[in-house]
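User: Please fill in residues for this 556-position structure.
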C-alpha cells in the first residue's frame, strides 16, 4: 500500500478573495429579487447598470452569495457584450457610452464616417465610442445609442447635443393603451378560454387552417407546435423569443410599440392552450424602452386580467445574437452562456429547466386573437395565389420609404420597392438585396420577381427568415456588403464549435484580400455548413456563396 502523503498546510484561503463590503453592496443591490441560479444574468445587469461595469471583486461577491464558483460567474459575464468585466485596478468606463450601429443598412448610410468623427471629437476617457450590431432602427439609419437613448438618423451634431445635455435615458412609445385595447374587445377571447367557452382543439384547428407559421425565421406551423408540446407530460413552460437580432429586422419592435396588448393576449392564449403556468419573455437589451413598457403593462395585466393564473417572467438579453436560436435563448434564461444545444431532443420535449416548452416569436402570437375572432380565412386569404397569409417585411437600405411593410405573402422585392417604399432613392439604381437578413443570402436585381415567402427561395440558396429585406444599389460595392455580413458573424459566433468559430474568422481574412480565392472560400463555406452545430455557422457562408454565384463578374 502506498503511504499517504500529508497535504501541505496553506496559511491563506484558496481562490479569489471575497471582500465583505462588496458582499454587502451586492446583497443590497439584488435584495428585491429572490436568490436563484437562473437569475445570474439579471444580477449582472443590476451590477452593470449601477457601476457601468462589473469589477472582479463584485463578481466574486456575487458568486459567493450564489454559492457558485467564480469561474462560472466569470464565464457567463464575459460571454455577453453588454457586460464590462474589469480588474479592480482598472478605472470604470466613462459616464457616457455611445454605441454606433455598424450593421449593413447603417453602414450604407454612413455610420463608418460617424464612428471615425466621434473618435476624433471625444477624449476616450470622457466618452466611450463603441461599434454595435443592429439596433432595430434600420428604417432610421444611421442609428446610435447615447447611453440608452436611441438617436434616429443620427449626425455628429445630434449626438453631441445628447452628450452635452446628458440625454442618456430611453423613452417609451405608448401605442394602444390597455384601456383602449380592452374597450375594443381586447382580452375577451382570453376570458372565454379561461371560462371554458372555447376549446383548445378548436383554436389549434383554426391556427392550422390559417397557415400561421413561426415568424422568427424557421417558419414551423404554429398549430402543429402547440400539438407537439401538448403531447408531453406536465408541467410545461412557455417562452417568447424577443431577441430580434437579425440585421435588418425590426418588425417585432414595431408591433410591441404599436399594440403590445395584442401580443400579450396571443401569448396568454398560447400559454393556456399548453397548460403553462409560467411564461418567460426573453427581450433584447437593445430595446430598453420596450422593456420598461413590458414591465409596466405586466403590472396592469396581473391586476386586471390574469390574477394568479399564470406568472410572467421577463429576462433581459445582454447583447448576444446567438440567443435568437431557441436553445441558446433557453440556456440564457437559465442564467448560462447562450450556447446552442445539440438536437434532438427539441425544446418541445426537453426545453427550459428540462421541461416541455412552447417557444414562439413575438409576431407569431400577435396574430392569434385576430385569427380566432375573424376566422382562419381572414388570415390565409391575405396571401397571393399559392401563399397563405400576410407577411411583415422589414425593408431598409436604398429605398425612399423604408419601414415595416404589411403585404401579402409572396410579394416580390420589386413590388415592395415600387408599391410600398416609393421606389429607390434618387440617383440610385436597384442592384441587389438580402431577402432574409444577414443569413438569408444575397440576390441580384435581375432576380427581383421571386415571391418572398417560406419555401420559395431555398432553390436559389437563400431563405426568407424573419423577412428582413435590405436593398442596395449600383453605388454599393458587393465585396464590402459581404465583408460587413461576415464580420458580423465572426463577432457573434458563440465559439462553441470550431467550424463556426474558426470558419467565420478565416472567411473574413480571405474576404479582406483584394482578389478572392473562390475555390478556397467555397471549400470553407461548405465545411461550415456541414459541420457547424447551429444555424449561425450553417448559414454564415450564404452571402459568400451567393456573391460568387450571382455577382461573380463584379467581384473585385
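Assistant: Residues filled in for all 556 positions:
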Amino acid at each position: 500500500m502506498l503511504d499517504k502523503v500529508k497535504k501541505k498546510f496553506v496559511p491563506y484561503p484558496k481562490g479569489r478573495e471575497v471582500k465583505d463590503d462588496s458582499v454587502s453592496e451586492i446583497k443590497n443591490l439584488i435584495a428585491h429579487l429572490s436568490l436563484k441560479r437562473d437569475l445570474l444574468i439579471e444580477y449582472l445587469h443590476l451590477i452593470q447598470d449601477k457601476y457601468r461595469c462589473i469589477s472582479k471583486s463584485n463578481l466574486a461577491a456575487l458568486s459567493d452569495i450564489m454559492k457558485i464558483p467564480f469561474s462560472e460567474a466569470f464565464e457567463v459575464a464575459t460571454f455577453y457584450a453588454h457586460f464590462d468585466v474589469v480588474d479592480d485596478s482598472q478605472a470604470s468606463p466613462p459616464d457616457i457610452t455611445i454605441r454606433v450601429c455598424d450593421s449593413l443598412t447603417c453602414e450604407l448610410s454612413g455610420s463608418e464616417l460617424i464612428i471615425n468623427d466621434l473618435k476624433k471629437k471625444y477624449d476616450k476617457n470622457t466618452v466611450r465610442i463603441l461599434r454595435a450590431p443592429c439596433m432595430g432602427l434600420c428604417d432610421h439609419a444611421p442609428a446610435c445609442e447615447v447611453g440608452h437613448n436611441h438617436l434616429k438618423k443620427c449626425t455628429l451634431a445630434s449626438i453631441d447635443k445628447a452628450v452635452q445635455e446628458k440625454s442618456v435615458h430611453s423613452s417609451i412609445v405608448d401605442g394602444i393603451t390597455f384601456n383602449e385595447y380592452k374597450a375594443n374587445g381586447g382580452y375577451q377571447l382570453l376570458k372565454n378560454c379561461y371560462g371554458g367557452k372555447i376549446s383548445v382543439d378548436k383554436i389549434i384547428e383554426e391556427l392550422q387552417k390559417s397557415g400561421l407559421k413561426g415568424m422568427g425565421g424557421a417558419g414551423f406551423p404554429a398549430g402543429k407546435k402547440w400539438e407537439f408540446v401538448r403531447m408531453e407530460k406536465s408541467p410545461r413552460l412557455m417562452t417568447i423569443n424577443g431577441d430580434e437580432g437579425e440585421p435588418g429586422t425590426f418588425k417585432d419592435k414595431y408591433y410591441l410599440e404599436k399594440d403590445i396588448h395584442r401580443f400579450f393576449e396571443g401569448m396568454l392564449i398560447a400559454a393556456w392552450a399548453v397548460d403553462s403556468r409560467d411564461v418567460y419573455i426573453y427581450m433584447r437589451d437593445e430595446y430598453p424602452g420596450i422593456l420598461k413598457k413590458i414591465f409596466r403593462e405586466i403590472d396592469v395585466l396581473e391586476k386586471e386580467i390574469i390574477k394568479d393564473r399564470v406568472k410572467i417572467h421577463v429576462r433581459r438579453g445582454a447583447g448576444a445574437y446567438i440567443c435568437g436560436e431557441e436553445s441558446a435563448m433557453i440556456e440564457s434564461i437559465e442564467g448560462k452562456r447562450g450556447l446552442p444545444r445539440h438536437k434532438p431532443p427539441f425544446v418541445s420535449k426537453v426545453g427550459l429547466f428540462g421541461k416541455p416548452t412552447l417557444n414562439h416569436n413575438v409576431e407569431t402570437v400577435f396574430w392569434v386573437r385576430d385569427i380566432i375572432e375573424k376566422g382562419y380565412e381572414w388570415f390565409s386569404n391575405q396571401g397571393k395565389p399559392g401563399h397563405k397569409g400576410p407577411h411583415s417585411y422589414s425593408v431598409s437600405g436604398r429605398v425612399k420609404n423604408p419601414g415595416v411593410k404589411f403585404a401579402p405573402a409572396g410579394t416580390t422585392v420589386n413590388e415592395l420597392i415600387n408599391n410600398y417604399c416609393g421606389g429607390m432613392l434618387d440617383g440610385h439604381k436597384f442592384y441587389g438585396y438580402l431577402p432574409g437578413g444577414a443569413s438569408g443570402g444575397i440576390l441580384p436585381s435581375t432576380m427581383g420577381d421571386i415571391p418572398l415567402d417560406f419555401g420559395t427561395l431555398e432553390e436559389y440558396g437563400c431563405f426568407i427568415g424573419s423577412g428582413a429585406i435590405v436593398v442596395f444599389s449600383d453605388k454599393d460595392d458587393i465585396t464590402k456588403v459581404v465583408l460587413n455580413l461576415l464580420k458580423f458573424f465572426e463577432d457573434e459566433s458563440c465559439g462553441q464549435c470550431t467550424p463556426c468559430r474558426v470558419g467565420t474568422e478565416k472567411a473574413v481574412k480571405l474576404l479582406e484580400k483584394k482578389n478572392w480565392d473562390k475555390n478556397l472560400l467555397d471549400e470553407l463555406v461548405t465545411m461550415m455548413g456541414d459541420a457547424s452545430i447551429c444555424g449561425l455557422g450553417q448559414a454564415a457562408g450564404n452571402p459568400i456563396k451567393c456573391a460568387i454565384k450571382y455577382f461573380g463578374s463584379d467581384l473585385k
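For context: Residues 393-554 form a domain with the Ubiquitin-like (UB roll) fold (CATH 3.10.20.600).
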